[in-house]
Specification:
The protein has eight helices and nine strands. The chain has two domains: about 140 residues, Rossmann fold (3-Layer(aba) Sandwich), CATH 3.40.50; about 140 residues, Aspartate/ornithine carbamoyltransferase (Rossmann fold, 3-Layer(aba) Sandwich). The protein is of the alpha/beta class. The strands form two sheets. A five-stranded parallel sheet has the order 7-6-5-8-9, covered by helices on one side. It is globular and about 50 Å long. α1 crosses α5, α5 packs across α6 and α5 crosses α8.
Length: about 300
C-alpha cells in the first residue's frame, strides 16, 4: 500500500489542531480505564538507533497495554564482511513491510518526502536530529493534566531551547498559545526557529523568569567546542529554590527526563515537581498515538 494512505507523525506540523486535542483527551480516557480501540493482532516495531529509555520502553509498554505486540530493533545490519551498514532507508522499508506501525529514533533527520513515497506502514518519529513530536504531545498532556488548559498557563522554559523536544513543543505552542511564554537559554542555545514563535514570547535571564505556572526543564548539556558551558554557567540554569519562588502554588515543574543536574537536589521533594507523574502519564499518550497511527 502506498504510504500516502498512512498518517505519519514525523513533525509537529503533521498534527492538526483537532489531532492534538483528540490525542490529549484520548490519553486521559485511556488513563482512566478506557477500552483500547485497536486490532489485538497489531504489531508495533521500535527501531531505535540512538540511546533511549523512556521513549523506547514507553512505546513498547503502550503497545502491550493496547493488547498489541512490540518488536524491538536496535541496530542496522552490519558485519565485518560488509563495506558499510545497511542504509536507514532500506531498513525502514523492510521493517515497515513487517509491522503495522514503526516507531523510529534516528541520529539524522527523517526525510518526510521519502517516507510518503516509500514507507509501507505508518511511521512515528520517536526523536530525530530535528524534532521529537511525541515528547511535545507528552508535555502538552502533562501541562493540561497537572496545571490546566495550555491557554491559561504562564509557561517558562529554562535550558537548551534547541533540543528536539522543545522545537516540536514550540511549534505546537505557535498554534495553541499559552497565556504567556518566557524562555531562558544560554547564548547559542536559543530556539531553532525564533521567527516562528508566538508574539508574546520573551527571552530572559534564568534569574528573571518572573511569575509562572509551569516550568519546563528540558536539560542543558555541557556541549563541545566553542559552545561548551562550564559548571557555573550551567548551574545558573538549574531549577533552584530561588527560581521556584516564581512558581505559583498550584504550579508544576515538568521535564522530559532524564534529570541529571538541571534540578537542584534540595528542591527534588517539592510536591510541585511532576516529572515522574509526567513520565507515568506518557504511556497513555503513546497509547493514543499508536491508536491514531493504526487507524490510518
Amino acid at each position: 500500500m502506498h504510504s500516502s494512505n498512512f498518517r505519519h507523525l514525523v513533525r509537529a506540523s503533521d498534527l492538526t489542531d483537532t489531532d492534538v486535542r483528540h490525542l490529549v483527551e484520548r490519553a486521559e480516557e485511556l488513563a482512566e480505564g478506557g477500552t483500547p480501540q485497536v486490532e489485538k493482532s497489531a504489531l508495533v516495531g521500535t527501531l531505535f538507533l540512538t540511546p533511549s529509555m523512556r521513549t523506547r520502553v514507553g512505546f513498547a509498554a503502550a503497545a502491550f497495554r493496547l493488547g498489541c505486540s512490540a518488536l524491538p530493533v536496535t541496530e542496522l545490519r552490519f558485519d565485518d564482511k560488509m563495506s558499510d551498514a545497511e542504509s536507514l532507508e532500506d531498513a525502514v522499508r523492510v521493517l515497515t513491510g513487517m509491522v503495522d506501525v514503526l516507531v523510529t529514533r534516528s541520529p539524522r533527520q527523517l526525510d518526510h518526502d521519502w517516507l510518503r513515497d516509500f514507507a509501507a506502514c505508518p511511521l512515528v518519529n520517536g526523536g530525530d536530529s530535528t524534532e521529537h513530536p511525541t515528547q511535545a504531545l507528552v508535555d502538552i498532556a502533562a501541562i493540561e493534566k497537572f496545571a490546566g488548559p495550555v491557554e491559561d498557563q504562564r509557561i517558562a522554559i529554562c535550558g537548551d531551547a534547541r533540543m528536539r523536544s522543545v522545537t516540536s513543543l514550540l511549534r505546537l505552542f505557535g498554534r495553541m498559545p499559552p497565556r504567556s511564554l518566557v524562555i531562558a537559554a544560554p547564548n547559542g542555545r536559543g530556539p531553532l526557529d525564533p521567527a516562528g514563535l508566538i508574539g508574546q514570547c520573551e527571552f530572559v535571564a534564568p534569574n528573571d523568569l518572573g511569575e509562572f505556572d509551569v516550568l519546563l526543564m528540558p536539560g542543558l548539556a555541557p556541549g563541545t567546542g566553542p559552545e561548551i558551558l562550564g559548571p557555573s554557567e550551567r548551574t545558573a540554569f538549574s531549577a533552584s529554590a530561588c527560581m521556584l519562588e516564581g512558581l505559583s502554588e498550584r504550579g508544576v515543574v515538568l521535564s522530559p527526563m532524564p534529570v541529571i543536574d538541571e534540578i537542584d537536589n534540595d528542591v527534588r521533594k517539592d510536591p510541585r515537581l511532576k516529572m515522574f507523574e509526567q513520565s507515568d502519564h506518557a504511556v497513555f499518550v503513546r497509547m493514543a498515538i499508536l491508536e491514531w497511527a493504526l487507524a490510518s
